[in-house]
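REQUEST FORM: STRUCTURE PREDICTION
Request ID: SP-0412
Submitted by: Lab K.M.
Chain count: 1
Length (residues): 303
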Amino acid sequence: MQTMAIKGIWFPLFFWLLLPGAGAQQTIPGLEQAIRKEFSRSPGTYALAFQEIRRPERQLLINEKEVFHAASTMKTPVMAEAYRQAANRKFKLSDSLTIKNEFKSIVDGSLFSLEVGVDSEEKLYQQIGEKASIYDLVYDMIIYSSNLATNIVIELLDARNVTQTMRSIGAMDIQVLRGVEDGKAYSLGKNNTTTAYDLMLLFREIAKGTLVSKKACKEMTSILLDQKFNEGIPALLPKEVKVAHKTGWITRVRHDSGIVMLPDGRKYVLVILSKGWESDELATEIMANTSKLVYDFVVANGQ
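STATUS: Completed
RESULT:
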């Protein structure tokens, strides 16, 4: 029998776990309590979806059906659709597209352009009129969250196809209507939306290798692993833990979503969405702390 010592007194481990609060976070209810306490540190709405890949019964859902502005998390569905269309031989990912900065609003077809100072990636703007491979555009869309690359790729794919592919995997609430910075659409409330649950379904398919093909999932995971914005899910995790993820943020909205891969081969999907808070710094801290709580739970529960 395993034992535990407290001030020189030895207790069977069973009785240790019965002490108030002891080992609480090693159970799903305990993990939920700890995460809700973390979320309560800030005003606003938070949502979480967590599931282990090998043991899907280890799952925690909090506000998982709450609808959020997708921000840049919509770029992962766009990447998935690019790989689907490539697999269907509509194009090769090595094919090239002309880099441009002129797009049609979904409202009335009027033209709009992106502002370089607003985008999180500026290099592409220096290449207007040149060509780039579809793969390179998808890569920049994910790891640098390039809005310009996103709009070029969405124009190729058609946003409606992105949404339809999400429906095919059971993600019924993700809605990809348009590219980025379509001001007329935004003013009318025509925004890309998501839920924590639907993003969990998407990343679960990628983690299992069942979205498009194993090869496609491996390539998508490799891209997601190169993510340059790591203040959320990966921030407090050990360096040997790999995180293939996509972030997203706009005013009073911050998200992170992805696959966490442990050195022993275990994987889990984690999605954390937030909106309506007052401090971006605090929301980011809460996201990192929540990720660490989930990681500690997974490690504590072993294989």
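NOTES: The longest helix spans residues 280-300.
Reviewed by: T.R.
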